[in-house]
Amino acid sequence: MDDRRTVKVSKYVSKHLRHQPDRIGLVLDPQGWVEIDDLLSAAAAHGFHFTRAELDHVVAANDKQRFAVDGTRIRASQGHTVAVDLGLPEAEPPAFLYHGTVAAALDAIRAEGLRPMARHHVHLSPDRETATRVGARRGRPVVLTVDAGAMHAAGHVFRISANGVWLAEVVPPEFLRFR
């Protein structure tokens, strides 16, 4: 499977497991799971054919481990805009986490902090390198440091997804470092 096909299948699956399952007739369970055979059939019925082997490759090759497979089911690891409860337990974060963004967003972030926007949570990275890659998707990256230890001590809840992405409901501006 070449890289372009891998990306195409990954984006298609991500779109339908995170944002628009109903667009192809999928019904996610409350935790975001769907039967793999149902995903393959729904995609084919809507003109996008891919095989179980291609899906397995996408799941295994994805550097961000965007998808989780449990037996005959698959779900997105995080980033949903549709209502799901991933059942992620609360976790104590490291002292600092990071968020990649672009300069155009900084004024709003300084005023309001980090908000989930259309997603259920703010996504935070465990290291600057990952946050830099995330920010670079939208242009020249700016990496913010989140004082996660202080946030946690102040009562903010953190969760961690299966692929190592830290999740918070919001990050108030007083816990951000813009240097």
Distance between termini? 41 Å
Task: Decide which structural class fits the backbone.
Answer: alpha+beta
Per CATH, the architecture of the largest domain is Alpha-Beta Barrel
CATH class of the largest domain: Alpha Beta
- Order of SSEs: HEHHEEEHEHEHEEE
Helix content: 25-40%
The gyration radius over C-alpha positions equals: 17 Å
Sheet having the most strands: 3 strands, antiparallel
Number of domains: 2
Beta-strand residue fraction: 15-25%
Question: In DSSP terms, counting alpha (H) and pi (I) runs of 4 or more, how many helices?
Answer: 6
Would you tell me which CATH topology of the largest domain applies? ADP-ribosylation fold
Pfam family, one: PTS_2-RNA
Protein name: Probable RNA 2'-phosphotransferase
GO molecular function: NAD+ poly-ADP-ribosyltransferase activity; tRNA 2'-phosphotransferase activity
Family: Belongs to the KptA/TPT1 family.
